[in-house]
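Memo to structure team: turn this sequence into structure tokens by end of day. - J.P.
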Amino acid sequence: MINLADLFEHVADTVPDRLALVAGDARLTYRELDERANRVAHWLIGQGVAPGEHVGVLSWNRAEWVEVMIGCFKARCAPVNVNYRYTAGELAHLLDDADCVALVGEPDLLERVPDRPSLAIGAPYEKALADASPERGFGPRSPDDPYLLYTGGTTGLPKGVLWRAEDIYLAAMSVYSGPIKDPAELTIGAEGLRFQVHAPLMHGNGQWSTWICLSSGGTVVLWTGRHFDAGEVLALAERERSQVLSFAGDGMAHPVADELLRRPYSLEVFSIGSGGAPLSAGVREKIRTALPDVMVVDSYGGSETGAVGMAVEGARFTLGRGFAVLGADHVPVGPGEQGVLARSGNIPLCYYKDPVKTAATFVTGPDGTRWALQGDHAVMRDDGTAELLGRGSTVIVSGGEKIFPEEVEVAVRSHPDVYDAMVVGAPDERFGQRVTAIVAAAPGREVTLEALVEHCRRELAGFKVPRALVLVPEIQRTPVGKLDYTWARSLLA
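Reply from structure team:
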């Protein structure tokens, strides 16, 4: 019977004086973080927030984000991740869709959503906590307590994925390979892992990485910069003796790899991982050159499935428990066959207040197994791994052929003159869509369509090779490190 607040309290009772969180100037032990989260929970309850209700968090990465998240779980309500880049209209839509009864956030960000019950981080927040009890004194909790995660909305309006607390822990936040029935079963080592998290807490990657560390008694070193700076990231890792660096794709890892090659750092890092977006082969190679003894790992998953598995190399992943590649009949396919990646077992309840999308994503197979569809197409291999092809929502259809941009992007990025790239389909009168590469050239290099076509023909079938090239100073990504396909398509309008 797993509950996130119970898990955290077990760790806090086991190692109360261990450093739990480093976030900017804040340094909190497990005892201190537990007491501040208790104060948040008592404040929420005092405001009339009831179990099962939702509380928005509109903030950059900071200690208060973690305090509010844990405090919500203690009060049996769900923290709702609110994107700090949203406009006033987008914020109003999300808060209404999520039925948020309260909002905690940065003072300047709260100005975008007037007329809502809110608590500003800073003096008002500290006064609210000072007036609340640091003790626990909460009633029993349930594994059914809610966890609500809003997707980034890259393929439409953001959607709230509603999980049970037990399911999200087992699907995305646990370092254990088997089920945990009681917090007492958690093994807390004599020394915790120092885990540096760079993804925003308003994204699943940031939250899950944080909880993996906290639930195992480690120290979360949280990146709190408003803008990603590779030199500052590595200086932080050097200063805090971080052992694991967690990134969100090339957007973060590439400048860090370049910085590592530029100058030496005294690091204790033994693992560099990426979640939310895989690392390209070129970035992996740069990291291995700079840090040959460091393990480079891609983890893969989604808001609807949790953590899928870990990369063997490139696009091939060892699938975790409960995962399969499903055919059109919602039955697992065999080796060499293509389908959609899916998970059974510990999966979400639904999309919050959206029965139509729920029915399309959370399906039941002919044998009665309930599946959550990841939305990504994959091919099963003989060795039990799955090779990812790409997301169905970004597929390019040219001359009747389906082309997954991710496959073409791998080939384009392997060109020595390319620093970063993405691929989209531009309208084409003859073929429907034209494969178009959007490229940021490596410093001091030039990229031409002719050279790119010649290079890609060695790795791709002819119909997949880019037919057009758009050069840009920088490839734009979303705040969570994913390629911004909306921006890319706007270049072609």
